[in-house]
Amino acid sequence: MTNLLATTNYAAIVRPLQVLVMVVAVLFLLRVLRVAQVQARPPEDQVGRRRRRRGGLALEILEPEERSGERVDVEGALLIGRSPDCDLSVLDTYISSRHARVTNDDGDLSIEDLGSTNGTYVNQELVRGRVHLAKGDIVQVGGVLLEVVR
Amino acid sequence: MAKHARSDSPPAALVPPPAAGAAPAEQPSRLRLTELTLLFLAWVVTGAFYALAYLGAQGQMPPSYVSFLVGMVVVSLGMHLVVARLAPRASQVLLPIATLLNGIGYVEIARWDPPLARQQSMWYLVSAVALTVVLAVVRRVRDLDRYRYLTLLGGLFLLAAPMVPKVGTSVNGARLWIYLGRFSLEPVEFAKILLVVFFASYFAANRDLLTTPTQRLGPWRIVAPKVLVPILAAWGLSVAILGAENDLGFAILIFALFIALLWVTTGLKSYVALGTGLLVGGAFLADRLFSQVQGRVSEWLDPWSSVNLAHSTQLAYGWFSIAAGGVVGTGLGLGHSGTIPFVTSDMIFAALAEELGLVGVIVIVALFAAFVGEGFRIAQRAPSDFVRLAAGGLTALMGFQAVVIMGGILRLLPFTGITLPFMAYGGNALIANYVVLALLIRISDEVAIERRGGEVLIVHHTPGA
Question: Is A28 in contact with B331 (Cβ distance < 8 A)?
Fold first, then answer.
């Protein structure tokens, strides 16, 4: 049972079997990718895809108090600021004239700051670049508080 | 009227329900079916590879095949149950990936050096215990934030330990080992974990100061220098200690981690530029100062000259092995990598490349990529800066090690004796890898709980739903 003899005998068996096992390893990888793909979706995607189709995400005003409860739908892009030509124009001390823009990308909302003086915050974190919005997020634009709702 | 009763949503609601974070013992164990399925696939692959390797090499089934299978299944199933009990919402792919990498590595070790493989299986058992201990002790990763300077001191102490005479010993030119009675330890493996935690903690606390330039220096605006002092001191010290211990690999690793975390913290590319500059400058200096570094660089640039070949034989053998493997490999047990010095530790990647070929190497690299990807995904969803940086740093640690050693073997980088995570032989390295795995699992569980806390908040907030 020298090594050389074994090599000549078993190469023909080992190599095809090895390919088979490699296929299992690739299955392992595909499964991992699949898990990552499922988890990468926002959680509401898994529970309520149908609900999403019925009504996408929108914004609801929490403050200022007098406009509280008002629902703002986002179609394409929504400009928030003090200036009257903004889509959502609010008179507020701390808001800039063109403060932030909310974008609707197939039901996914994201917000970006437009170089405002006082910044835009999502869940009390300063927005740098573009921030993805999920249901329940609290958006602060100047003194205006908005909640992301369905 | 969907009128918001704002007094009904007190700020306390933003904190996850205390039962979730504080008393994980009350969490029910969960059936983690994905993890179990993946583990099963990992067992199939490892078990089949083990049999094939012995068939190819010796024309017979491995002598203690059943006990090997039982040992592997029992230990990894044990870890699976521990995770299900102590971190039920954790990521389900990390443990199986580690198990599979570990298994493939083990097969290659067993194929070249069966006694060493028996030791490695003991280390595997110890690693499982280490994973359990870490998950049981570290209930919330953010608690580590409190021990900021303690982790720094601990890390530096471990780095310096091999320098103590009598206890510390040089092996192959690098002074990295300490001997305590019959046990030998490679403290640097654990030091790097502590240093990552320190960097994460310090950067998270000083994020704004690091990001906002406040001082003027000529035409540039720079951040306040005093913020950088402790970091640069920590970095300088660890590099100095490593320089004294003659280990280039870990010096580069620590530095790369440092820059990566600084980048993740601030999002400023200028830190990366600065870091690359320092790295090149440092490498140039090290090339002049340390003979080992000098050798490594010249072997990298010109391995075939008669002077360098005396030292680069190990690498040259590795390249011949890789070339012999070709696309589909020679077949398990049918390669001839046994002549490579340190084939089971430094050069295990070359041996695998020979027997599994390019296809196998792609699978292995993809497994590492999946591990790193999952780690960064966890980091991305982390609720606080510290947890995000800790997850990112630990992931980067694994990723950098894999890249540095695989790149070294393929001659893309100078060769250093860093171990390939989970695959190469080495008790301390394996335990340290499982500690990192345990911390990532803990963080991913924490992330899932906090997310769930967030959902509770939403239900609370939306009267219409």
Answer: no
ipTM of the complex: 0.79
Q: pLDDT tens string for chain B (465 positions)?
A: 444 444 444 444 343 444 444 444 445 567 889 999 999 999 999 999 999 999 888 888 888 899 999 999 999 999 999 999 999 989 999 999 999 999 999 999 999 999 999 999 999 999 999 999 999 999 988 888 889 889 989 988 888 888 777 667 766 666 677 776 666 778 888 999 999 999 999 889 888 888 777 777 777 777 777 777 777 777 777 677 767 777 777 777 888 888 888 888 888 888 888 888 877 787 777 777 777 777 788 888 888 888 888 788 889 999 999 999 999 899 898 888 888 888 888 899 999 999 999 999 999 999 999 999 999 999 988 888 899 999 999 999 999 999 999 999 999 988 887 889 999 998 899 999 999 999 999 999 988 877 665 443 333 333 443
Could you give the CA distance from residue B131 to residue B389 in angstroms, rounded to a whole number?
Answer: 21
From A66's Cα to the closest Cα of chain B, the distance in A is 11
Please state the separation of Cα B375 from the chain's center in Å: 10
**Pairwise CB contact (< 8 Å): A32 & B55:** no
- The minimal CB distance from A35 to the residues B93, B328, B464 is found for B93
Tokens of B267: 């999002």
A18 contacts in B (CB within 8 Å)? Answer: 49, 52, 329, 331-332, 356
CB contact under 8 A, A31 and B41: yes
pTM over 0.80: no
DSSP A52-103: HHHS--EEEEEESGGGTT-EEE-SSEEEEESSTTSSEE---TT--TT-EEEE
